[in-house]
Amino acid sequence: MQFRAVSPFLGLALLLLCLGPAAAQLFETKAAQAFMIDADTGTVLFAKDADKPIPPASMAKLMTMEMVFNAIKSKRMTLDDTFVVSENAWRTGGAPSGTSTMFAKLKSAVRVEDLIQGVTVQAANDGCIVLAEGMAGSEANFAAQMTERARELGLRKSTFVNSTGLPADGQQTTVRELTLLALHIWRDYPEFFHYYGQPDFTWNKIAQRNRNPLLAMGIDADGFVAGASEQAGFGIVGTVSHNGTRVIAALSGLANDRERSEEARKLLDWGSHSFQKTEIFAKDEVVGVAEVFGGAKSGVSLKAKGPVDIFLPIANRDKLTAKIVYSGPVAAPVEEGQPVGELRVWIGDTLSQQTPLFAAEKVEVGTLPQRALDAAKELVVGWLR
């Protein structure tokens, strides 16, 4: 059985979507890797080498914070719990390290909420290590738990060796998985998301501005983290909310902090202004028909579980293409509600949406002559698929 595509569209949908090869990207970026989604639906708006493994740098702190937020939400920890700053945390991530730090004092006890602010606002490496050691006994144990948690969240390539993102052999992620992790944090921990947009934080009498350069750009950015590594260059995970549309993006492989800021600004600004959400099929509306083998009918109507919305490029609607894809013909009998295939939508050459489709009706097994005719058709045309 091979995947086949059929044209499913009628009326307005036929005008909006056409079958054919995907076109080039609608947006260009200097980033070596980039990925952007609409947060409400998960629709992919842009992708460039999105699955290439890269060192996460400070963007690994997203996973560290996910672990912390999850522990608080599941009541295994509270914001008022305290952890002690070990010598390892102080030397590796504190003032002596020369890296981003909240300047936590050696052997001091720090509240979890203050550590969270140190990490989300100041990208504090000492804050990460204090949390890791306090929650798991050692940073190595915590990093193993980070990787395990990443797999639970469906992040198959992200592997963590430490809590900070400092250089370490075997530590990797992708811009796609960073974006999906950021989406998960925004969606599942709304009570903690505001820390990422906090403009500054003072600890140990040292005030520091938020290290996310997007927050001061006037583009409605309100969260996440920047990072840099010698191997992968400068990267960032950012989000913008504009007129009810929130987009989240991750970029990597940029030459310097200025280029990182500018490329992230352009991509997020484009994503939040250049698409229009449009319903093309209402709930229970037939999306298309799949061919049936050996059935009382030659085809079965298909529908989605609910309405089908797409994000149309406002200025380049001709760059949007779509297909129904299924493994077929579908063998009878077919039960109503049976999974059959999916609607795939491309924006340029980016696979943007994949909507599961189900049988909208029941199709019984056909008569002997009907089945014989279908078998003869398969002998003639099946090899062409």
Characterise the protein shown here.
The chain is of the alpha+beta class and 385 residues long. It has two domains: 2-22 and 278-384, Peptidoglycan synthesis regulatory factor (PBP3), Domain 2, CATH 2.60.410.10; 33-273, Beta-lactamase (3-Layer(aba) Sandwich), CATH 3.40.710. Helices cover 29% and strands 29% of the residues. It contains ten helices and 18 strands. The strands form five sheets. Strands 1-15-17-18-13-12-16 form a seven-stranded mixed β-sheet. Strands 3-2-10-9-8 form a five-stranded antiparallel β-sheet, sandwiched between helices. α4 runs antiparallel to α5. The protein starts with a strand and ends with a helix.
**Mind summarizing the main beta sheet?**
7 strands, mixed
Distance between the termini: 9 Å
> Architecture of the largest domain, CATH level 2?
3-Layer(aba) Sandwich
Q: Which parts are unreliable, with pLDDT below 50 for 5 consecutive residues or more?
A: 1-23
Number of E-type strands: 18
Which percent range describes the beta-strand content? 25-35%
SSE ordering: EHEEHEHEHHHHHEEEEEHEEEEEEEEH
The domain tally reads 2
